[in-house]
Design goal:
two-stranded antiparallel sheet, EC 3.2.1.4, 3-stranded antiparallel sheet, globular, mainly alpha, 6-hairpin_glycosidase_sf, polysaccharide degradation, Endoglucanase, glycosidase, Glycosyltransferase, 18 helices
């Protein structure tokens, strides 16, 4: 039977409607990356410890931790609470700082001027604190706050009355991981500040050199020290060894100083410090994939063939991320999110997305692609993988939810965060004691204070997300989820398509 043109048109429309009904329902994939970037940086104001400045924009927060460090004759005020608690953990804070600084170093020129300024302010809130943690010779303060006591309370940071224990490592005891990451943070930040505050940048670099010497001279993991182990473990124990932080710190010092001694260090110590190990991880505890990407810039910019093994590892890592590649072995959820087992999955998605974009820029500048066996991974392909992750986090997912608080109309309302879930000290100035906060934790009412920009731990391997304060692996935001996301969003502000 021959169909008329109008019948054929009706038939075609019916087929299209049936096909559309079979597709998963996602929100429209237009995103306001500028708005998301602004909020992603604003989040850090909600995590501030110390005396808040007059231009504090997260207005429901107040001063906190003003006596931190007094028991060890040091001023350890300032810095960031790592997540939804009130402890200042030095290891993840230093990594957060490195990633904020790397975001500015690679993508600062993509940021609107106001957001570049806000990003530098966010970095400095941390670097000022990190400088204090290493202000005494051959000593590093690695943590402020007893995490056991803190985690047993549901208390606003402005009210906290648990022990503000200071965890200290003195030479010859080792802290290569925290000291190495702190050196990386200060060196990376010196690059970020170089054009804006050269005197401060020089202070950061000079201190980074000294702190790296401490890390390298007394080798070992900070969590192996018996006097602090019970305070840092299992929260931010060094599970993956300290060797990667030594290479990472040296690589950042090489980039910031252009000193050949650091180039020699990463050449000569690569094998002994395990540069070829665990190449598929990047986060606060394992720097390998990030190290390989960072060092690859030397190879591509200056034909440093002695560092070729780092670039080969970076290439290999990129190939594992591409589903179409014969080397692919990174897991994705059905909705397309990078997934790694363990808690707080979006920390993996944001760090890996950041590395994809950085590596794409390095490849493009040197006119290269990556050979992934069956396919060639171009800069555009890597950016496409990264964009799918960013868009998923902002709402293009099976749930249609933005996993960034305050972005879009549908985002988590019950995040695992003390300050957000308890009434603000501005609205409820009366003291709320340790156990009195439980009524707010168990409340079925959404959090009264919106922690704008916070990216939560995110959904599980099945794309399911339970908006529930008790499900902390999914509902708790952290600084080290947001920090690399700043760089990723900055790239897409300038390159939305």
């Amino acid at each position: 039977m021959k169909l008329s043109s109008s019948q054929f048109h009706q038939f075609l429309c019916a087929i299209i409607l049936i096909l559309l009904e079979l597709l998963p329902v996602y929100k429209a994939s237009y995103h306001d990356y500028s708005d998301a970037l602004s909020k992603c940086i604003l989040f850090f104001e909600g995590q501030r410890s110390g005396f808040l400045p007059e231009d504090q924009r997260m207005s429901w927060r107040g001063n906190s931790g003003l006596s931190d460090g007094w028991m060890v004759n040091a001023d350890l005020t300032g810095g960031y609470y790592d997540a939804g608690d009130n402890v200042k953990f030095g290891f993840p804070m230093a990594f957060t700082t490195t990633m904020l600084a790397w975001s500015v170093v690679e993508f600062g020129n993509y940021m609107p001027p106001a957001e570049l300024r806000n990003a530098l302010v966010a970095i400095r809130w941390s670097t000022d604190y990190l400088l204090e943690t290493v202000s005494q010779p051959n000593r590093i303060f690695v943590q402020v706050g007893d995490p056991i006591l803190d985690h047993n309370c549901w208390e606003r940071p402005e009210d906290m009355d648990t022990a503000r224990t200071v965890y200290t490592v003195d030479s010859p005891n080792p802290a290569s991981d925290v000291a190495g990451e702190t050196a990386a943070a200060l060196a990376a930040s010196s690059l970020a500040f170089r054009s804006f505050d050269p005197v401060y940048a020089e202070t950061l670099l000079r201190t980074a050199i000294r702190v790296f010497d401490f890390a390298d001279s007394y080798r070992g993991a900070y969590s192996d020290n018996a006097n602090i182990r019970d305070g840092v473990c299992p929260f931010y124990c060094d599970f993956d060894g300290y060797q990667d932080e030594l290479l990472w710190g040296a690589a950042w010092l090489r980039r910031a100083s252009q000193d050949d001694s650091y180039l020699n260090y990463i050449q000569n110590n690569g094998k002994t410090l395990g540069a070829d190990d665990n190449i598929n991880e990047f986060g606060w505890d394992n720097k390998h994939a990030g190290l390989n990407v960072l060092v690859s810039k030397e190879v591509m910019d200056g034909n440093m063939y002695s560092l070729q093994s780092y670039k080969a590892s970076a290439d290999s890592f990129m190939c594992t991320l591409i589903p179409e590649s014969s080397y692919s072995h990174i897991e994705y959820t059905p909705g397309g999110l990078i997934y790694k087992p363990g808690g707080s999955n979006l920390q993996h998605a944001t760090t890996i997305t950041f590395l994809l974009l950085v590596y794409a820029n390095y490849l493009e500048k040197s006119g290269q692609t990556v050979n992934c066996g069956s396919i060639s991974a171009s800069p555009a392909l890597l950016r496409g993988v990264a964009k799918r992750q960013v868009d998923y986090i902002l709402g293009d997912n099976p749930k249609g939810m933005s996993y960034m608080v305050g972005y879009s109309d549908y985002f988590p309302q019950y995040i695992h965060h003390r300050g957000s879930s308890l009434p603000s000290i501005k609205d409820h100035p009366q003291f709320i004691a340790c156990t009195e906060g439980s009524v707010y934790f168990n409340s079925s009412t959404p959090n009264p204070n919106v922690l704008v920009g916070a990216v939560v731990g995110g959904p599980g391997e099945d794309d399911v997300y339970d908006d529930n304060r008790a499900e902390f692996r999914q509902s708790e935001p952290t600084t080290y989820i947001n920090a690399p996301f700043v760089g990723a969003l900055a790239y897409f502000v300038a390159n939305p398509s």
